[in-house]
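Example 3.
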Amino acid sequence: MSTQTNGLDRRNFLKTGLAGAAGLVVAFYLPGRREVLAAARLDGNAATPDVLNAFIQVAPDDSITILIAKSEMGQGVVTSLSMLAAEELECDWKKVQIEFAPAAVVYFDPAFHMQGTGGSQSVNSAWKPMREAGATARIMLIAAAAQKWGVDPSECHAENGVVIHTASKQRATYGSLAEAASKVTPPQNVTLKDPSQFKVVGQPFKRLDTPIKTNGKAGFGIDVRQPGMVHAVVERCPVFGGKVASFDATKAKAVPGVKDVFQISDGVAVVADNTWTAMQGRKALDVQWDEGPNANVSNETIFKGFADACATPGVVSRKEGDAASALSSASQKIEAVYQAPYQAHATMEPMNCTAHIQADRAEVWAPTQFQTPTQNTAAQIAGIKPDQSFVHTTYLGGGFGRRGWSDFVTEACEISKHMNAPAQVTWSREDDTQHDYYRPASYVKISAALGPDGNPTAFTARVACDSISRWFFGPAAVSNGMDSSSVEGISDTPYDIPNILVDYHMVTGPIPMGFWRSVGASQNGFFLESFMDELAAAAKKDPYEYRKALLSKKPRHLGVLNLAAEKGEWGKPLPKGHYRGIAVLEAFSTYVAEVAEVSVDKDGVKVHKVTVALDCGRVVNPNIIRQQAVGAVVYGLTQTLKGSITIDKGRVQQANFDTYDMLRMNEMPVVDVHIVPSEETPTGMGEPAVPPVAPAICNAVFAATGKRIRHLPIAPEDLT
Amino acid sequence: MATHFILNGKPKTVDVNPAMPLLWVLRDNLNMTGTKFGCGMALCGACTVHIDGEATRSCVTPISSVAGKKVTTIEGLSATDSHPIQRAWIEIDVPQCGYCQSGQIMTASALLAKTPHPTDAEITDAMAGNICRCGTYDRIRKAIHRAAELQAGGAKSASADENSELVASAATVSAGGAE
């Protein structure tokens, strides 16, 4: 856990103007939108002229430490952000190490009004400030060297962690200059390199966290060990919204090693010397549930609710022209209903959290994507102020949106408080699958009118699903009945169609909803890009050429579409029985097109190859971009080919990987990734390659079988 | 009841419930957290260790069953991350979130010990029990092939290339190259 920082010390360190740290510390503000932060400032210190929430430290031993205020869940953020600073710092990359930031208001992300990681935006928001911070440190180190040598700074330059006086070839390492540099007045403005000078940005650097992830030393939340720590598991009501009616702990407490059994807000906690013993105690526990009003909820009732809602108009998300008139007068009209199921996140590290609640101090070690709710949750349960609550962010064994929630934090804090000891709560795989905040199940009625040339003259989509924002931010956030995350990926259709109407029914229910890798586009991309394929088929046109003609005003969509078609050998001969499908989508300002090559036989769909073309602006690290593209394809394949979460009697029917399986190596296709060169500001890659996977595969299945897949995952009966 | 076994080359005695799975003895009693809990039912492979050289799911292995046997965990695979599998994993830059990787590495190293030059089919067969939700399967496959070369000692060592410490293997990141 060497990468973690002590929350108290670091916080004071930043408040007191960086005193006490060895060497040079350059503090700066990330992500660069001061006004948002000032509005959110809670510490009453509004007079502070500058809020510095990030730093680069150059220590006398030549080490470079970069504070990372984002959570590392596999997306490579510690490496990518460090590269931005290193580009301008001209440091020795081998000397770079990182620390995760504590929880504090100064780290609020303006996108969420809290500290957190999501929306594929970390590199985008760090692009300028991280480089500026690196440049500031470099200028101060050069100034210190010039002072030492009695020369003008302009006669010196820096490379690979050393300042060099160009004429005399005198050299000084950053470490040897760090103390003197800390006394140099920081420059007011820095000029950043021209991109043609980049040495780090654009290079396929290896990840900084790879070595500790190959020897078992990376500290995940579940690996936290504190002196005197107890281990806990929790029995929760299987029905959403249900409560404990009563419980008998006699047998559970009789299990040797079980320390205590008691009720918490989520259910009944069993605390023991170790996790396995706690699990044995839980098996012996007898709980009577008040299942509440949701015990009759099922997939059937939920989807009937969606269908019923769609009988009437919803809240308008996008309206251009007059789609109704165009449809009523059209010579050819296409209509369809598409559905997507609930999906769980299934992070490989099950939910867990470790907390120590004391009278005047709360400490939490958590694999969390959102530090602010974690900090506030602990403070609230401890009955103290947020600034007495300290969050240590660990490595995350997968996130995908699940770890934006604090339900596991609440449990750990309540248990620690009751036990008056550090406590770790660990979820079983079954708990993790059955008590998630799920990707919304969704339903869409979609239609289009085609003109004489086969091109669409009107497009309508009526979406029905529950709202993630309602669950995460509260009902007030969606009081107008609209949640953009419910319609993203379809409401923003890029195709050149004169009449468009997209509306939305927020159908609320008891199944918890959450952000799931690529969020609304994960289902809406499937709806839109499958339906576009239906239109191409109705127009008797090639699906690639059809899209291409309708995207003539969208150069970045077109760029990835053409590249995917070229590299995926669209239209070229295939082995017998193989077929291709194509899809293109923008998500989080990154553009991705994919060509899938499949065959279909009695065993179902086999995906042989997925060709990915992506445009995420300027490439920061092609190694990590490729990792993310391939990983996103696997995530998309799992939702297309594997299981789904279904509800019966108010509870989730799946439990472990035997009933909710993930894609495995034997099902892994070749994934061929191509990156469009770009000079645009970098955008994220954690999520955007997920949405095109399902439609590209289903469109290939249509090419192979003539069967249109209108709900996921693909079922055997859909193929015959 | 005390159980005696060899853990990473050293004699070990633990006095726990004989039914307690090896996984939890390692993680909670011995504080060796490199071995991961993923499913508890031998469905995901995150908890894989070697027992007398065999890749074994420690989450369903009662501690009593390892009495007198040799157990190797990720912590004991090599003293300096020098096992060919670990070197190949670093060269190819395999992990993303990293949580499943201890199990992947232990399964792969057991394969390589028995099958020094595994075919793609043999790799798939050995590795299909290990889930990676981040989807690192193709880099895992590449890294196993690379580890076979490193183990044989016939291939050029990557460290001879000055740049290779910094950047991921060309096989991984070549423009347009299939993952």
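The beta strands of chain B are 2-7, 10-15, 48-51, 54-57, 70-72. Chain B has a mean pLDDT of 91.
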